[in-house]
Amino acid sequence: MSKIEILAPVGNEEMLRAAVFSGADAVYLGFSGFNARTSANNFDADTLKEAVRFCHARGVAVHVALNTTVYGGELPALEQAIRAVAASGADAVICQDLAVATLIGKIAPQLPRHGSTQMSVHSLQGALELKELGFTRVVLARELSLPEVEHITKHCGIETECFVHGALCMCVSGQCYMSAFLGGRSGNRGSCAGPCRLPFEANALPEGKPGRLHHLSLKDNSVIDKLDKLQALGVASAKIEGRLRTPEYVAAAVSACLAGREGRAYDRDLLKNAFSRSGFTSGYLDGKINGTMFGVRSEADAELTKKTLPALRELYRRERSRVPVKMKLEIEEGGEKLTVTDADGNKAFAYGDAEPQPARTDPAESLHRSLAKTGGTPFAVENDDITVEMDGGPWFIPGSAVNELRREALDALLKKREVLRPWPTTDEHVPALPLRTLPPHRTLRARFESWDQVPERALDGVEYLTLPIAQADRVPREWRAKTLLELPRVMFGRLEEDTARRIAATQDAGFAGYEVSNIAHLRLCRGLPMSGSFGLNITNQLAAQFYADNGLGSMLILPEVKDSDISTIAPTHDGKPVPTGVLVYGHMPLMITRACPLQNIHDCAHCDKTGVLTDRKAKKFPVRCGLGVRTIYNPVPIYMGDKPGALTVDYGVAYFTLESRDEAAKILDMIRVHAPFEEDFTRGLYFKGTN
User: Fold this and answer.
1) Main-chain dihedrals φ then ψ at residue 267, nearest 5 degrees
2) Residue 632, number of CB atoms within 10 A of its CB
3) What's the rounded Cα separation, in Å, for the pair 144 and 105?
4) Which of 315, 555, 577, 646 could cross-link 532 (Cys pair, CB 3.0–4.6 Å)?
5) What does the alpha-carbon distance between residue 287 and residue 360 come to, in Å, rounded to a whole number?
6) CB 20 within 8 A of CB 320
7) Is the distance from CB of 199 to CB of 259 less than 8 angstroms?
8) Which residues pair with 221 in a beta bridge?
9) C-alpha angle with apex 312: 299 to 229, nearest 5 degrees?
């Protein structure tokens, strides 16, 4: 059974030393401008090379995060970032945006790609799709239970990576738009402001029972005591979250993981004191998703961390001897030669000019002892891997001379191991971006949460209706040719199998096609008509073209994208334009969560699957439950119905979620005649964009 990799976060050079010196097998770090922790001290082309030298010399792998969504104007800089990563010889790139994956495939096709957790891969079909696309590893969603991890790992055919310690986002990674819509700082762009850590009071509807605060703040995840189980399942890598934390935190987590991997006890209190939010949770992996998962960072927690830091620094004060080597010392009358060899076949030599003297006793033991003193270096040697050969001896040489030989040979070996091995690159470049003009004819689509919301005249002036696939049986046969069936954005548990059955049952029932919003859906609907929803996070031309090449006949652009960038997205298929669209109305789903913010005030048996969260500014965020997840909506809807020519797309979508049938009918009428909105609304991010 292969040992599970201990993968540590690195936000700066001191954290890099802490991760490596404390024993991490691999590190992940961000490349400036394109990673999901923009406030970390990220690495550029030069410092990345130095980091790779440092790590590779010590047998530690380096994974580079290029895991943000990318806007069109950034694609040339992205190309240069990929070339810099390839030149460094780093071991893999972690990516979310399929533009990144596409460019790597064109520029550095041998550079391994890992699917970021922000790709929202939480099912077997999603992992299988990544395998087909050439990814070598998938970072699984944090919300999975142990049996779900096992099912994917045993059947997906590529490596799986699981978060085992660190902060938990409330929302499924990659599907959170709360920070972007509330403050213009996008989580998908690495600038999350952490609004989920702020106070939110919960009220359950209809009784309005008040609850305690911080209903979107989860405790840190910690399942280090289950590392041996994950290893037995075949999980390749155990990932520690925390590029914005401290070197001491990294060292504490790595040290605990080394013990957990072997099934040994570790100091959980020390780990908690390094950083926690009033303790840890293992609720997702244990399948115990309840109110005990929630917690906040208290003043007492911060004080404990402050007191613990000096002890934690001892965990990475000295270099860890971890790279096995073999040594051969040859002594003859004229001098000495030491050869040091590592497992990769690198060899280094040191020559001495000390005059050997005839030995009165066998010097082998003392020579072995001197050669074995590799402490403070990355190298380790077992006594059985030390060979001493004497020509005409036995000979005596001073211990100081042997020590100097050892130091000189190991320094030379370290330099050889620091030599970069770049990945080969091609002459491919980012293509010139199209610049769209406003299409002469634009259409309207209407998406509904349920059939009960659909007005009688819903098809008047509407190109397509979209309804959840579970509502398919309620759609009259005469409406089906203009109805798209929406697949669930997340499919935990057996929902993926249920969705596959529903697709099979509806594909010949006269529907126009399927609305997809997760990488797994491409596989589930291959060969069938597909349209893309905002959950695909399409923000640039290359990603849009990827989806057009993989069967999408139309697609929504992520509502975080600014108007000027929208105008550069124009995918084609077989030489014909593939329509793009935007939301023109709707309460944006800001979060989709597996944990329930309402469980802190009542259990599922006493809930009607509706609720509201109130923030510190008295804004009320509706919550709805269904299909094993909770969706939290923006209180204020997007409205662009009175600006029909403002965005260069082919269609707009009225996205109905909370509205009654009458309200939906009224809003559709307003959009048809381009009427102004009568209540509070937002233009979203179409005219201001995000950080």
Assistant:
1) -80, 95
2) 27
3) 29
4) 555
5) 69
6) yes
7) no
8) 166, 281
9) 95
Q: Which residues pair with 597 in a beta bridge?
A: none
The C-alpha atoms of residue 351 and residue 397 are separated, in whole angstroms, by 13
pLDDT of residue 40: 67
Entry pTM? 0.95
Banded pLDDT at 206 (limits 50, 70, 90): very low
Please check whether residue 449 is in contact with residue 656, taking contact to mean a CB–CB distance below 8 angstroms: yes
DSSP-derived secondary structure for 411-434? HHHHHHHT---PPP--S--PPPPP
> What is the C-alpha separation between 239 and 220, in angstroms, rounded?
13
The whole-angstrom separation of Cα 458 and Cα 473 is 18
The DSSP call for residue 659 is -
Of 241, 225, 223, 216, whose CA–CA distance to 291 is shortest? 216
Tokens representing 6? 């201990």
SS in 3 state form for 220-242? EEECHHHHHHHHHHCCCEEEECC
CB 123 within 8 A of CB 498: no
Contact predicate 334/370, CB 8 Å: no
Residues composing the chain: 691
So what's the pLDDT on residue 212?
A: 54
Amino acid at 500: A
Percentage of the chain modeled with pLDDT above 90: 87
Distance from C-alpha of 423 to C-alpha of 441, rounded to nearest angstrom: 47
Asked if residues 377 and 408 have their Cβ atoms less than 8 Å apart, the reply is: no
607: its two tokens: 């809930």
